[in-house]
Amino acid sequence: MNSRQDKQTDKERAGRLTASAELSTLNEKYYRDLASAKVEGRPVVWLTSLAPIEIVYAFDSIPFFPENYAALCSSRKVASELCQAAESRGYSQDLCAYARCMFGSIFEKRGAFGDQGPPSPDVLLATEGACTTHIKWWEALQRHFKCPLVIIDVAYTVDSESLAAHHKAYLAAQLREMTLLMEKHTGRKLDMAKLREVISLADRASLLWDEIDDLRKAVPTPVSQIDVFTCLFPLVTLRGMPEAVDFYEELRDEVKERVNKGIGFVPDERFRLIWDLFPIYHNMKLLNYFAEFGAAFVTDLYGNAFSGRLNPSDPFGSLAERYLSFFNRSASWGKAEMYKKRVRDYSVDGIVFHSNRSCRFCTAYQREVGHILKEELGLPSLMFEADMVDPRGFDAVDVKDRIQSFIEMLEARKYPKIEKMQ
Amino acid sequence: MISSEFYESYRNRHQLAEGWKRRGRKLVGYFCSLTPEELIYAAGFIPVRIRGTAENISLADAHLPSFCCSYMRGALDQALKGWYGYLDGMVFPKTCDMTRDLYSIWKRNLPLPYYWFLPLPGRGTDEAVEFTVHELGLFRESLEDFSENRIEDESLDRAIRIYNQNRSLVREVYELGKRESPPLTGSDVFAVEIAGLVMPKEEHSAMVRNLLSGLPEGSNSGRSGPRLMVTGNNFESIELLETIEDCGGRIVINDLDTGSRYYGAGVAEDREPMRAIAERYLREVRCPCKHPAESRLERILGLAQSYRVKGVVMVVQKYCDTHLYDRPWIESRLREEGLPVLSIEHSDTGWTSGRFRTMAQAFIEMLE
User: Fold this and answer.
1) Is residue A3's pLDDT more than 50?
2) Which domain holds residue A88?
3) Any residues with CB less than 8 A from the CB of A180 and at least 6 apart, and which?
4) What ipTM is given for this predicted complex?
5) How far apart are CA A194 and CA A57, in angstroms?
6) Domain count, chain A
7) Chain B within 8 Å of A180 (Cβ-Cβ)?
């Protein structure tokens, strides 16, 4: 049977979530706040993903994530020219495209909206919690902006057993050091009550996110992967703000209602897949190409990287724990365990690896995880190369061909009888 | 080549290692200049640096994407092909992002009795030293468990002395580079350096002593040509340096991961050994994985000045993120200091090609 015959039209699919419309409002408000920060006298902090944004908000500073911004540039189709601008200044084309895109924006004074780009940082905040690349990138930003740079070292752990008390103590001590540096660089005192409030709200948003993630177990799965990726914005950027909690409450209710009514993103859901790991911002619609064959993405680890429970009565200790437990800090077998659990809990038929040229750290483990899932669960996988931000060199036709072959293989595995009958 | 004995030892490193193994020694492989080898040595093992070559990579492709550095891919490929069959264990320190991924790939595919991952901080603060002292304690215990022997403080002190002696002997070799016409070429020095990565330190030290005492007082090679420094990370092929020197360049000093960064300052002998080791590895080894980057630049500029270099060859492995972020800045700072830079991004192949020779020639002619 030809999978093409299963092709569904866009009309038949459940539409975008109503709650996701609220996103543009939140987005616009955030960028307005960012643009007026200098006038309002709010310090602008450029931070790496997985840096303690909670502390930034506790200082009533405004956080800016260059990574999100580069993703925005990519979806607005200005990333390749910005990347090239960085390359012409000596930055290798093999470096992370988030970084290249942001360097290009700074050098060219060009932003995602045809403007001059984001306001310059008053403080740069980088953590090694995700990757060493972040530190190198922020050092380069510091040389450019000549503003204070705060570095938080998150000593790497390979598995949860090796995560001992001294790791937590070392990180918690640096978070306290960070607050002293923030006091110095922003001229503001840390308000502990405010920090506890931010942490409590961040915890609440995380809990809601986890609930939504749990709801994706339903068959058919209620939301598209595109919605999941785009709805991450408040969890990442507004983490600790009340509007993020309001947004996720609304979103959770909507998703729950879909589940109760049996509404699926793909109405006739035939295959349930995992997406690993980064979105392809310049070609998000590739995710929906899978839906044309009745395949839906039902879970991922990417979103959960930005969730994580916190305890307002132990701000620094619980922040340290959260930032140490980022899933990508475990060895390949640890990641495979996380996926194995998800394969069972979400009734998964296969996994798709986006081998992201921008991130060696997040691609180097993929083959191993694929081998483990194949050996232990017989889980089929598809791997293709792309870049999350930089569209140059991406061959959508070839990738679509490979997706189609992958689906045909899944078809033969999952529905062998139907194949015989035809 | 004056140092051909060293180069032969390096080229025969696997046979030499197998010989030690037959004589009952245990060998522990390690990555990177940030592994505190003193502890491995004190536990009675021979530490062996893992090297890699980009030639004929085949088996590694099933485990790593093509857009990873040829060092990591080459090292894994050779291990999968059984070249490191004599190893009893492996140690991976936290340096770059790739090392941590490689740890789990290596461990799952190459079962060995001993594996250790050492989470080293990226900063050199007092808190980072405290953390590292704690981690070194765990590392020490794991080595004790594996060797079924306690590592006494006296053995550790002895290991520190042996390593320090070796470092200071190699630094005597570097000192020769300050002469008007150094008696050893950059390729000679490279051979001395890489041989020391793969053999017991006392043997290497004996060879270096021999080399130094064999050189006549105040000897000079009589060679002229622009004085150069090579900076960067990691490459396997001595041909890179030989080609530059064939073209008339004189390499008088390096800032390489397998060179002067490895053989830099020793471990303080007048302090509590574990703390002294922690301080040395966090603060003295100026790899770009360590923050702040300025201290690495200062080191490079300091070497350029004291060795009176006229130009710098910057050799960076393709896909090496940490070096590639620093490169535009270091290049421009060197140029500001009046030092022309030949910048090479490589996959550790093609050093004897006409293309590379032409680049090297043009650079050297420009300096002359």
Assistant:
1) no
2) 3-421
3) none
4) 0.97
5) 9
6) 1
7) no
